[in-house]
């Protein structure tokens, strides 16, 4: 049976607005982030999209976004957390290295600075989302996560590794027999 996952990035935060690296650290949603999350919630409602289950990362920017989209009960999961960027947390995005074009990512650059590798993030997020979708009653699922975590998942499952993941966008994936297939990106605007 084919199931549907809406994997959504949290709304814009203060650190997003200030172009600061935010992985394990957190910052509050901006007014735009709040407004966009409400807009996406109305869009889901207008399209008649009802979720069997909802999940968010344990980080507040993700759970705050989910609570603005739907008032249904949800579960917070550590497996959906953002990539840990080590000592780069809270610093200017200008300090990020250039992504390796062969893999479409920073690879293991942040490990030497106390962070995670893209492989570690990808494995964590993929395992968490697979466990969610393998539940027998999980046919239409919303999961709110983060840009880097979602990008690592996209590297595994989407053919186009350059897919842009703006704040408050939802990536729609079909899921069948252990395989995720990217369908489309739904944006707040």
From TrEMBL:
Pfam families with a match to the protein in the record: His_Phos_1
Cellular component terms (Gene Ontology): cytoplasm
Residues noted as binding substrate in the record, renumbered to the chain: 9-16, 61
Highest classification ranks of the organism: Bacteria, Bacillati, Bacillota, Bacilli, Lactobacillales
A molecular-function term among this protein's GO annotations: phosphatase activity
Origin superkingdom: Bacteria
Identification of the protein by name: Histidine phosphatase family protein
């Amino acid at each position: 049976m084919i199931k549907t996952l809406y994997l959504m990035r949290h709304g814009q935060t203060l650190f997003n607005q200030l172009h600061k690296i935010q992985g394990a650290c957190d910052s509050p949603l901006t007014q735009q982030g709040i407004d966009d999350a409400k807009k996406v919630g109305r869009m889901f409602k207008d399209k008649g999209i009802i979720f069997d289950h909802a999940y968010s990362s344990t980080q507040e920017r993700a759970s705050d976004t989910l609570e603005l989209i739907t008032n249904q009960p949800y579960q917070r999961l550590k497996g959906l957390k953002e990539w840990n960027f080590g000592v780069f947390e809270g610093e200017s995005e200008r300090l990020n290295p250039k992504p390796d074009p062969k893999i479409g990512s920073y690879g293991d650059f942040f490990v030497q600075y106390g962070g995670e590798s893209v492989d570690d993030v990808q494995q964590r997020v993929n395992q968490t989302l697979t466990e969610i979708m393998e539940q027998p009653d999980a046919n239409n699922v919303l999961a709110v996560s983060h840009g880097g975590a979602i990008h690592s998942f996209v590297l595994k499952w989407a053919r186009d590794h350059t897919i842009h993941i703006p704040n408050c966008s939802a990536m729609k994936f079909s899921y069948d027999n252990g395989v995720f297939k990217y369908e489309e990106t739904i944006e707040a605007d």
